[in-house]
Amino acid sequence: MKNQTFNPPSLQEWQEAAEKALKGRGIETLHTKTYEGINLKPLYTEEDLPAINRVEAYIPGADGKISMINEWKIAQKLTRKTWQDLSQALLGAVSRGQNCLAFSMGSLELDQGFDSFINGFAGGSLPLFNIEKNNTALVDRLSDMAEENVSLKKLKGVIGFDPLSETGFADGEYNLAEWADKVTAAAGNLPDIKTIVINTSPYHNAGSNAVQDLTYALSTGVWYFERLQEKGWSPEQIAKKVHVHFSVGSHFFMEAAKIRAFKKLWKDMLASYGISKETCDGCISVSAETSHFNKSGLDQHVNLLRSGGEAFSAVLAGVDYLMVHPFDTVKGETGMFSERIARNIQLILGEEAHLNKVVDPAGGSYFLEWLTEEAGRLAWQEFQRIDRDGGIAASLKAGKIQESVRKVCEERLADLSTRTQSMIGTNIYANPEDSLSGVEVGDEDRLSLPFERLRRRTEKLAMSGRKPAAGIIGLGELKSHKPRADYVSGFLSTGGILSHLSPGCSTKEDILHFIEETNYPYYVVCGKDEEYDEWLPLILETASNYHSQIKMDIAGKVSEMKMSEWKQLGLNGCIYHKQNMLDKLNSLITMWEEENRND
Fold first, then answer.
1. Residue 452 and residue 441: Cα distance in Å, rounded?
2. What is the mean pLDDT of the chain?
3. pTM value?
4. Residue 269 belongs to domain with CATH number
5. What is the domain range of residue 594?
6. Is the pLDDT higher at 221 or at 168?
7. pLDDT band at 410 (very low <50, low <70, confident <90, very high)
8. What is the rounded distance in angstroms from the CA atom of residue 224 to the CA atom of residue 367?
9. Final residue in a domain of this structure, among 394, 422, 441
10. Last residue in a domain, options 394, 412, 437
11. How far apart are CA 480 and CA 528, in angstroms?
12. Based on the domain organization, do 476 and 327 belong to the same domain?
């Protein structure tokens, strides 16, 4: 066997074999379109590789020689109720492998407790990491303290916020003048702290796609360069103070391509300001956090899997700082166990998957290299369009960016509600007994919120003693109705509705006995299409004679003519593949709510 050789198949041979397996369908049926408008093929070859120098494009500082390892800072953000507790928590995290002092102020005040906290870390080598909305007061306080305490001037890391994305995206307004003054005042006292932050997370957590994230990062960078040059900053000074922050979603390759593409585009943008290659290599500082947008309060431990894949994607892209949110972040307050697991995800990626031993571990992948170039090309086109329209600030004030992101978010939600996209534990494989206790279902942007709001309603009904439950009437033998019965059961579980499958029903008496035994207000008939013509009139009559208020659906989609005919006999509707689950479940839960009020 060692002496055997195999001729690699050509692309044409692969296509012929694939089409044979597809039973005559063309290979183009395997193409998929992303939210970025990129058409993905099922197979990529060496011919798809872009004609660029990968090392120079994506690996800052390599200078054509790969002699580094892929190091990143584990920036697990901790929040506590006192500065002393926060200090102890950070020291504990560092003793367990964390190599960055990432924290959130939360409700803490910048008082003497803060002074003791920051002085306690002044002589250390670990960088600080704090990106929070409107934290200019923190930068200001640190700058003032550094004037009196020389050791604080040695602090390094990232502390800042993005007034354009974090306030401008929300309402189109921002206080750029105050921000610029604070950043300028702190520049001399905190030379190694990056205070100019470009944060794309607000766009991501509102539903934006990867190309939009890229575009807005570049556009924000240009805006800050222009404004700070008016303050007397040189392009080199600005570039060394800039840090770019991304959220990473669950589209694994697209998210890795997004960050890799940014590095190349950022180099191109710096070059347009006359910054040399040697200078700009040290000016690319990138961090990432796992997405809030795709995390669910339902089956929360699945968030671990989502975050693990997102962290993997960010590391492949070569981020400098990485924050993995604990799986129970949706509760508002996390626990020590979930914080530990989130930190360990990064330790596993480095120490067990050895991703910290290889520079650009994803480099050379035909698909990822092509996708990186394609995402960058589309982002550059959109960046130029925004620039022609007056820049990102003008687009935010006009609401153009908000509208563009909203459209993508609506597309994502539509796909989730029809199961075109799956969210395990939320819109598929849901546990109807799952509880949302402690989960914040507020105004924040999360894709699962419409499903969680449905579950809140069923939980409220359960507390009143009327937990929604439905009967599933299976016609004939189990094997003939089980596929549709399983689909209906999973569909109803998504809304927190319990279901009870009948034994195989072969007579009117079987059906009546099941209805009498369960006495539910709602049933779904599952069988083959040809069985419905024979059985449905009889079932509807039997149910109506037992109780006139019983509602009956069928599993499967039928023609409008047939549905109109059956509705005249008393059929309520149907449950079928690619149906809008939110609309259907909302109407069903409303039925139980109205029944509860009538009682």
1. 7
2. 91
3. 0.92
4. 3.20.20.240
5. 449-598
6. 221
7. very high
8. 34
9. 394
10. 394
11. 7
12. no
